[in-house]
């Protein structure tokens, strides 16, 4: 029996070596197989998010591994993936940059500075990590894509919450009661939005306006503590402590990206031209990254101004 089995294995091996097609199939298992990219009309309804992006779609994979291999070849989600993947890495590094290049050189600096700025940076990193993963798994299946779409929105909440923590800290630097109050209200609002985000109906098209209301309301809630700070301390002081000039540029970048994304330009103007590079969603990603860096620079500015004085709270 063993002799016969050995003979069959030898014949099978010889047949494989003699048959180029069999050798090719074996090679396909060892090498990355780049799938044929699809047109918009070829993909399932649950993937049809932007009717102005007409090509470059990966076929439905049904496999996490196959979806992850999508980072190795070009398709219409590549820029969305790498923009926030790189951004995630950068913001994981920035707390160390702050510690070694700013915190160490300010004799009045406190551990609180490292904590609040690290919260912001890690909040951005979480947001970008969720976003990159969502775009990687975009073609997996309707169920998994829906799940990661919720986490993508949840990441936006984490970023917004993380941005508020240090802004409140420096904006009400001399009033710990107001710091705690606005930290609690911001965290409570973020938690409420998170619960809504994870609700099964959240990503349905019928819920689109509610999504806009909840997230818009959370974003506008930051205006309340900014205005309160201005009333208490005036423009000149809060311009320094809250880095209002930097915040203005941050808001401009975010708003510009959001408007371009909502308008689906420039892809609606020139079909096929921006399927891989320059689409509205990609512009939004870059705008959000720029806004995140601007806010970080604003926090560094507030830190430097406040900690350059021995006692900032002495009138």
Automatic annotation (TrEMBL):
Q: Which residues cross the membrane?
A: 81-100, 115-139, 151-169, 181-200, 212-232, 244-263, 283-306
Q: Would I find Cell inner membrane among this entry's keywords?
A: no
Please state the protein's primary subcellular location: membrane
Listed InterPro entries: AdipoR/HlyIII-related
CC terms in the record's Gene Ontology section: membrane
One GO biological-process annotation of the entry reads: intracellular zinc ion homeostasis
Topology class, membrane: Multi-pass membrane protein
GO terms (molecular function) for this protein are: metal ion binding; signaling receptor activity
UniProt binding sites for Zn(2+):
135, 281, 285
- Lineage top rank: taxon: Eukaryota
Which subcellular locations apply to this protein? Membrane
Keywords for the protein's UniProt record, in alphabetical order: Membrane, Metal-binding, Transmembrane, Transmembrane helix, Zinc
Which family is this sequence assigned to? Belongs to the ADIPOR family.
Know the name of this protein?
A: MPR-like GPCR protein
- Species, as recorded: Trichoderma semiorbis
């Amino acid at each position: 029996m063993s002799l016969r089995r050995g003979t069959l294995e030898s014949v099978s091996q010889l047949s494989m070596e003699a048959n180029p097609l069999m050798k090719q199939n074996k090679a396909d298992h060892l090498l990355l197989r780049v799938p044929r990219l699809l047109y918009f009309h070829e993909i399932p309804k649950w993937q049809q998010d932007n009717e102005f992006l007409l090509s470059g779609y990966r076929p439905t994979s049904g496999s996490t591994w196959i979806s992850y291999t999508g980072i190795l070849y070009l398709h219409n989600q590549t820029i969305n993936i790498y923009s926030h993947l790189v951004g995630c890495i950068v913001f994981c590094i920035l707390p160390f940059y702050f510690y070694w290049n700013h915190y160490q050189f300010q004799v009045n600096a406190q551990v609180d500075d490292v904590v609040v700025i690290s919260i912001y940076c890690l909040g951005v990193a979480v947001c970008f990590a969720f976003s990159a993963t969502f775009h990687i798994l975009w073609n997996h299946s309707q169920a998994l894509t829906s799940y990661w779409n919720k986490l993508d929105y949840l990441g936006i909440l984490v970023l917004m919450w993380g941005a508020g923590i240090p802004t409140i800290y420096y904006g009400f630097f001399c009033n710990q009661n107001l710091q705690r109050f606005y930290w609690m209200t911001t965290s409570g609002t973020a938690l409420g939005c998170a619960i809504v985000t994870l609700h099964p109906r959240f990503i349905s098209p019928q819920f689109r306006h509610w999504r806009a209301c909840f997230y818009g309301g959370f974003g506008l809630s930051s205006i309340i503590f900014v205005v309160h700070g201005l009333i208490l301390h005036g423009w000149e002081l809060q311009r320094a402590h809250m880095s209002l000039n930097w915040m203005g540029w941050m808001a401009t970048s975010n708003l510009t990206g959001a408007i371009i994304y909502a308008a689906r330009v420039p892809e609606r103007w020139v079909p096929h031209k921006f399927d891989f590079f320059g689409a509205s969603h990609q512009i939004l990603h870059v705008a959000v990254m720029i806004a995140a860096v601007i806010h970080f620079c604003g926090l560094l500015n507030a830190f430097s101004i406040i900690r350059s004085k021995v006692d900032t709270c002495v009138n």
